[in-house]
């Protein structure tokens, strides 16, 4: 056990993980690009079917890090009858709180266990689509990229959702209605805005941005799609905090995820009514967060009915996929690096060092992007765009 723990803390092992992840990502991006321009114009159906497995292959490497490398897990709070009937069998529009560095990754763990990981979509900032590997993968996967310019974004949302609901297999579309992760500074700015606009003042969430939500719903109604209200939490008493760094170091975390299926018909017609409905939903989410924060239980003081609690088994596909990519990438990569360093040439050695530094930089930047302190702003410039 001591040897395994040392390996999980080893910078060399972390470097090999980074090399595998980013190199495999570029290979997958290459094939996605060929299919996007060579197959999609003729058959969206077959393009999406094939791209599902390409996306799965890439995303599941991060799922493997969470599940198999760190041993992390999720406890689910879901009505079991509804879970068996609907979850993983229909298109879903996810409304999830955004309070932690790794809430999205444990969301991916959930998607993997339900067999929908390759069809995970999200609303994201337009700039992300230009980031190699993950950003490019999202672009080819037809995620919804927004500029936060409403005149442009409303048309993008409508056209993209029309595309997504045509998918042959269930998709899960994630909206972080808060727009960014919660920090004390952002929460203070959000509460000030809510007070000025006579909106509900939340203690644990930022005031949700309603425009993206109310412009999306009309395109979904009448389709085989439902809203999934998701509340993710981690116990503050846990010794290991939910960060990407801790996962990379092989430290186990345990998430608690409440999920409730809401039929689209429950969202009222009209922009104002739909916006009010979303604000009320976030008031309920805030009560659940407060209950969990104070008691370690979503239901103790929130007034939300208690539901079934269970875990889902890990699937071996993410582990097998990651091991295969490790062989495909690391064997030739290490061979050429050894050749460069053993050549005796200053130029070749410099190239070898440069390659290693590049992968370290990519790994560092990726972890940095996930950190709450580096998430997007929520201040005076952003406040005007909330509603």
Automatic annotation (TrEMBL):
InterPro entries named in the record: Acyltransf_C, Plipid/glycerol_acylTrfase
Domain Phospholipid/glycerol acyltransferase: 92-214
Transmembrane stretches, start-end: 12-39, 319-338, 344-363
Keywords: Acyltransferase, Membrane, Transferase, Transmembrane, Transmembrane helix
GO MF annotation list: 1-acylglycerol-3-phosphate O-acyltransferase activity
GO cellular component: endomembrane system
Protein name, per record: Phospholipid/glycerol acyltransferase domain-containing protein
Organism: Vespula pensylvanica
Taxonomy of the source species: Eukaryota, Metazoa, Ecdysozoa, Arthropoda, Hexapoda
């Amino acid at each position: 056990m001591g040897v395994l723990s040392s390996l999980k803390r080893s910078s060399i092992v972390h470097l090999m993980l980074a090399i595998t992840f980013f190199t495999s990502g570029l290979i997958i991006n290459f094939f996605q690009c060929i299919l996007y321009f060579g197959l999609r114009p003729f058959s969206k159906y077959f393009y999406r079917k094939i791209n599902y497995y390409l996306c799965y292959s890439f995303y599941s490497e991060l799922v493997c890090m969470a599940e198999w490398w760190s041993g992390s897990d999720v406890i689910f709070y879901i009505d079991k009858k509804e879970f068996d009937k609907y979850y993983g069998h229909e298109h879903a529009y996810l409304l999830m709180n955004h309070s932690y560095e790794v809430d999205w990754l444990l969301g991916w763990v959930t998607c993997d266990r339900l067999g929908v990981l390759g069809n995970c979509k999200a609303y994201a900032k337009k700039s992300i689509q230009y980031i190699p590997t993950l950003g490019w993968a999202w672009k080819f996967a037809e995620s919804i990229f927004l500029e936060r310019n409403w005149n442009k974004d409303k048309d993008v949302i409508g056209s993209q959702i029309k595309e997504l609901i045509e998918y042959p297999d269930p998709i899960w579309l994630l909206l972080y209605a808060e727009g960014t992760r919660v920090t004390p500074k952002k929460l203070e700015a959000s509460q000030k805005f809510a007070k000025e606009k006579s909106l509900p003042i939340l203690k644990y969430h930022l005031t949700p941005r309603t425009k993206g939500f109310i412009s999306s719903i009309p395109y979904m109604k009448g389709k085989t799609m439902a809203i999934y209200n998701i509340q993710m939490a981690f116990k503050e008493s846990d010794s290991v905090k939910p960060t990407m760094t801790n996962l990379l170091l092989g430290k186990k975390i345990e998430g608690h995820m409440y999920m409730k299926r809401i039929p689209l018909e429950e969202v009222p017609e009209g922009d104002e009514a739909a916006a009010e409905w979303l604000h009320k939903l976030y008031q309920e989410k805030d009560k659940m967060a407060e209950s969990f924060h104070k008691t370690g239980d979503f239901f103790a003081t929130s007034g939300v009915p208690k539901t079934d609690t269970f875990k889902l088994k890990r699937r071996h596909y993410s582990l097998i996929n990651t091991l295969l990519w490790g062989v495909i990438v690391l064997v030739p990569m290490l061979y050429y690096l050894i050749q460069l360093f053993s050549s005796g040439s200053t130029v070749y050695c410099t190239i070898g060092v440069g390659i290693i530094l590049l992968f370290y930089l990519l790994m560092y930047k990726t972890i940095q992007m996930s950190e709450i302190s580096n998430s997007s702003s929520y201040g005076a410039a952003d406040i005007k765009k909330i509603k």
